[in-house]
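Lecture 7, part B: from sequences to assemblies.

Below are the input chains for today's worked example.
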Amino acid sequence: MSKRSHEPIFWSLFGAGGVVAALVLPALVLITGLAWPLGLMSDGALGYERMSSVAGSLLGGLVLFGVIALTFWHAAHRIFHSLHDFGVHRGLGVWKMVCYGAAFVGTLWTAGALVAIAI
Amino acid sequence: MSARNTYVRPMRGWYRRNPRFMAYLLREGTSVFVALYALLLVWGLTALAGGAASYERWLAFLASPVSVLLHLVILAAAVYHTITWFQVAPKATPPLVLGTKSLPDSAIIGGGYAAAVVVSLVILVIAW
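Predicted structure of the full complex, as structure tokens:
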């Protein structure tokens, strides 16, 4: 039996993360980067009380987890496959561990922070 | 054993040879800024988990000039990602056959853009 590739798993995460990032990131960056710092939003829109209840709720927590974790996997896959374009052809197994390992750590970190907010 | 001395085409500065290569590099390069933004958000969540005082420090960082400048770069990358992502979507989507014709590429791309606009507006309305 031939050894099956892990690539479909990583590609699926990359694809899902790409869609999620394409749909939500511009608006989120606009909020945290410009609208809030420039005082364009309502008072407390990003305040501690509101954000705690949003991130601490089941729905809000799951959405945030999905967005952040999938974004990590999307970026990790792209960065890993771009190494070739920058002349990195050796030690790809190690680089794969570094890229996807970083996404894995990011996923655990996101989950840990959300659980800590919820409890 | 004879050592073969085959010609290896030099690849230095390959992305400057064709504007399409540069566009490809920028598209793939968005991932670095997208990852950076995800890190920024996890940092925010970690600060939120740490209590009101630590969360206020994260908000204070958001208001700093460094953060605003960084966000401008990330915003450009995120928008470029959205545009290019849906531009290549027809190549990754299984063909959708309606009657005898398959869904045209422009419909898939346009649908993606429309979805992005709608989702963005929903997020902005909820957050405001």
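Note for the exam: The helical segments of chain A are 7-35, 48-56, 58-82, 92-118. Keep this in mind when comparing with the next example.
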